[in-house]
């Protein structure tokens, strides 16, 4: 159930419909746009969303999908139902093109069946909603045989037609020869100017001749020029030839009508099949329009759950997002900066079903309310929505809104009466599958009474277990939400120091209206403000003051928390590095000791064996001088070779000389430069302010000018001509890698390819060093870099999940990556 009947207009969905119609190719898709309806069937919603998501991929990456000849032939099919009526050549040509487009769509989807791509669109092509959409090939072949690619009946459509057209061509050729002869004779006599030639009047070939000479040639005058100086004469000697051609043309038309009548009769039994094919074409046009709008909105397919739930991250108001696509011009007419939509993150679940949003006027409360309503309505109409793709969206049975003024002179309703009428409908119809949105709850009457009635209505809505969002300035509603289960406070953030709205929703605390501060900023006399505070009373003033101070302190502590969080992460990183290093050193030490013990053991065993052998040989030789001497020499040799300590090689550090000589002068386009602190030499390709585009080998990179040193052409040639074919291998110092690794990567301002390269190296190092969590700072902006990075990270099987950083530590501008 939807309430009120003007819900689409109040949320702005009528504008969404209009944009969809503009994105359609033909009236076929536009008719489907008019049929869009809100539904609570989760299976149908999921099917519609996946169809649109698949077509979004086609629009982005497939160029061979048919995009023309989406012709509305429904009127032709209605005429074809009439017995004895023949469709025209133009009508059959429209049918031919439309059916060809349908077949091209089928072929495109059939090719993707092997890879199981676009399963929902293939299902649509197979079923067409009510049955098979395939049109009898005999019929399409028959139309192809009769109608050519110019929309005319082919000569080969029948033997009779071919014979008639051959005779027409022959008669026309003979007629032209005779008229050409007459025309040449008339030119020689000076009756016809040289720039005039044969023409046609009334379907008959005639000669243009000067009016004063028209009686010099016998014939019939068919027409004359506007000035009357030229008449168009049919010579008497070609009357019969022209009449013969006209009779053949009449015969040709009769034969064409007979052919088209027979083709219409052949078409008539297949009208239902063609109607289904046209319906498929209409659905494709409609889904394509939704996909195009999704690309404009940067919309995604969120996770759909079949229960009431709102768990959104970085949701954006669709119409506001579209309006900010074009920069607002400055006062002098120059292009201004393009605005960006502040995203909305909100969660409503069984524990916190109703959100009470408070804050100053013009702080974004109403925009947040309409964002929730419009996005939820779009989803349940089968459209992709602009938010983070890991958001979760539930399905509601009822959607009630009370936004704007519904006062009516005809029904004798005041503003407050109209609000109470809406509240009556809400209380009667609300259930656990209802989402209600109320703007400026309780306004329009005396504040004390309005606040009390609003609190009672809120209590009833809470009892119904409905979900909802309410905007209010009433303090009693903030207090009620704070102490009532199922309700939660929220505030639109406001810079209390500079008195500027931040348009960010913060859930968990109420907001201040900042009425006195705003009045002071716009210049209201100080005495008036002080008297207002006295009239209000200390309790309310202190409450508002406390809210303001809490907001300022919260921002201060948020900055401190951010700093502490960074320090904690650094400390954790250093501890992890130290632990890993200590473990590795301990293991290496143990391994060395074990190896030394094992070698010593084997050496001792070998020495003992040799000593025993020596003693035995001395005894066997009875201490003879020469054999004994020889045995002693072998024992001494073993001592020298096996038991002496190894000498340590100590390398003396060599002084590192500068590899390149710098060259003075100003760096410009074409200059040879070296990046300070590196050995890479390149050439400047272009200059942009304080940045230079430098080509180093096959790579191009943007580098700040203050990081570049100019070198001579000789140095550049020597550096680029060096060739070393010997393979080099270099070990990696894991300790140095761990000491220099930072779990925080900042890619703001980088281009897409450059940023992806940085992310790959960053993740590879993290996987090698075993870091469980990473932070990638990409900034908010339009969210393009964030989407690019997250889509790329989904290709890593080692990535467990991604999420926005806490709002106080960067929010949507930072992606926190958790590794498996």
In percent terms, what proportion of residues is strand? 15-25%
Strand order across the largest sheet: 1-11-12-13-9-14-15
- How far is it from the N-terminal to the C-terminal residue, by CA? 45 Å
Q: Tell me the Rg in angstroms.
A: 43 Å
Specify the structural class: alpha/beta
Biggest sheet statistics = 7 strands, mixed
Helix content: 40-55%
- Tell how many strands the DSSP assignment holds: 24
- Which geometry do the CA atoms define? extended
Average pLDDT number = 81
Count of DSSP H/I helices: 24
Instruction: List low-pLDDT spans.
Output: 128-133, 407-412, 653-659, 722-731
Q: Can you give a write-up of this model?
A:
The structure is a single chain. Strands 1-11-12-13-9-14-15 form a seven-stranded mixed beta sheet, with helices on both faces. Helix 9 (159-188) runs antiparallel to helix 10. It starts with a strand and ends with a strand. The chain is of the alpha/beta class and 820 residues long.
């Amino acid at each position: 159930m939807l309430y009120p009947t003007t819900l689409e207009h109040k949320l702005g969905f009528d504008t969404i419909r209009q944009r969809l119609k503009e994105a359609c190719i033909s009236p076929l898709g536009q008719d489907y746009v008019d049929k869009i309806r809100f539904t609570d069937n989760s299976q149908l919603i999921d099917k519609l969303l996946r169809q649109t998501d698949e077509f979004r991929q086609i629009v982005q990456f497939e160029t061979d999908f048919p995009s023309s000849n989406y012709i509305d032939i429904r009127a032709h099919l209605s005429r074809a139902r009439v017995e004895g009526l023949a469709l025209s050549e133009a009508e059959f040509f429209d049918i031919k093109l439309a059916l060809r487009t349908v077949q091209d769509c089928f072929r495109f989807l059939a090719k993707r069946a092997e890879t199981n791509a676009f399963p929902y669109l293939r299902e649509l092509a197979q079923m067409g909603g009510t049955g098979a959409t395939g049109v009898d090939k005999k019929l399409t072949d028959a139309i192809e045989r009769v109608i050519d690619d110019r929309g005319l009946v082919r000569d080969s459509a029948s033997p009779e037609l071919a014979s008639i057209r051959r005779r027409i061509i022959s008669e026309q050729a003979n007629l032209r020869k005779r008229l050409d002869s007459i025309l040449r004779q008339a030119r020689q006599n000076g009756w016809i100017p040289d720039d005039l030639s044969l023409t046609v009047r009334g379907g008959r070939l005639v000669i243009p001749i000067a009016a004063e000479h028209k009686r010099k040639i016998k014939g019939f005058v068919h027409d004359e020029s506007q000035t009357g100086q030229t008449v168009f004469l049919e010579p008497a000697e070609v009357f019969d030839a022209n009449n013969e051609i006209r009779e053949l043309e009449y015969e040709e038309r009769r034969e064409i009508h007979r052919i088209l009548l027979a083709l219409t009769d052949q078409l008539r039994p297949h009208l239902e099949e063609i109607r289904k094919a046209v319906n498929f074409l209409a659905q494709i046009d409609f889904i394509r329009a939704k996909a195009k709008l999704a690309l404009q909105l940067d919309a995604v397919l969120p996770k759909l759950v079949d229960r009431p739930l709102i768990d959104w991250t970085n949701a954006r108001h669709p119409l506001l997002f579209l309006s900010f696509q074009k920069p607002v011009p400055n006062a002098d007419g120059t292009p201004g900066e393009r605005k960006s939509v502040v995203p909305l993150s909100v969660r409503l679940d069984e524990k916190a079903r109703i959100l009470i949003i408070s804050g100053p006027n013009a702080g974004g409360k109403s925009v947040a309310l309409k964002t929730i309503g419009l996005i939820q309505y779009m989803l349940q109409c089968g459209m992709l929505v602009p938010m983070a793709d890991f958001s979760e969206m539930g399905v509601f049975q009822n959607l009630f809104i009370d936004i704007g003024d519904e006062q009516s002179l005809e029904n004798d309703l005041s503003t407050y009466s109209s609000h109470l009428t809406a509240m009556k409908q809400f209380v009667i119809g609300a259930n656990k599958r209802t989402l209600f949105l109320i703007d400026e709850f309780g306004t329009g009457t005396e504040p004390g009474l309005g606040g009390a009635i609003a609190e009672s209505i809120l209590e009833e809505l809470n009892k119904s277990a409905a979900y909802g969002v309410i905007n209010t300035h009433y303090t009693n509603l903030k207090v009620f939400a704070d102490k009532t289960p199922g309700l939660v406070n929220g505030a639109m953030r406001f810079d209390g120091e500079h008195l500027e709205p931040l348009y960010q929703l913060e859930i968990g605390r109420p907001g201040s209206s900042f009425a006195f501060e705003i009045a002071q900023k716009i210049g209201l006399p100080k005495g008036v403000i002080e008297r207002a505070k006295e009239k209000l009373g200390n309790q309310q003033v202190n409450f508002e003051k406390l809210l303001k101070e809490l907001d300022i302190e919260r921002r201060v502590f948020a900055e401190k928390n951010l700093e502490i969080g960074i320090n904690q992460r650094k400390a954790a990183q250093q501890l992890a590095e130290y632990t890993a290093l200590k473990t590795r050193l301990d293991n290496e030490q143990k391994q060395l000791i074990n190896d030394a013990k094992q070698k010593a053991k084997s050496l001792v065993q070998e020495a003992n064996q040799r000593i025993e052998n020596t003693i035995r040989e001395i005894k066997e030789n009875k201490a003879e001088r020469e054999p004994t001497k020889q045995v002693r020499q072998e024992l001494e040799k073993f001592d020298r070779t096996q038991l002496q300590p190894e000498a340590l090689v100590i390398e003396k550090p060599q002084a590192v000389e500068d590899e390149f000589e710098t060259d003075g002068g100003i760096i410009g386009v074409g200059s040879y430069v070296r990046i300070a602190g590196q050995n890479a030499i390149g050439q400047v390709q272009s200059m942009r302010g304080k940045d230079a585009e430098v080509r180093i080998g096959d790579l191009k990179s943007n580098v700040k000018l203050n990081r570049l040193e100019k070198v001579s052409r000789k140095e550049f040639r020597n550096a680029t001509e060096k060739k070393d074919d010997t393979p080099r291998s270099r070990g990696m110092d894991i300790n140095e890698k761990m000491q220099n690794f930072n779990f925080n990567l900042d890619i703001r301002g980088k281009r897409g390819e450059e940023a992806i390269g940085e992310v790959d190296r960053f993740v590879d190092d993290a996987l090698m060093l075993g870091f469980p969590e990473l932070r990638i700072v990409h900034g908010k902006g339009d969210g393009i870099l964030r989407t690019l990075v997250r889509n790329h990270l989904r290709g890593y099987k080692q990535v467990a999940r991604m999420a926005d950083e806490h709002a106080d530590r960067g929010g949507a501008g930072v992606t926190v990556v958790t590794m498996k």
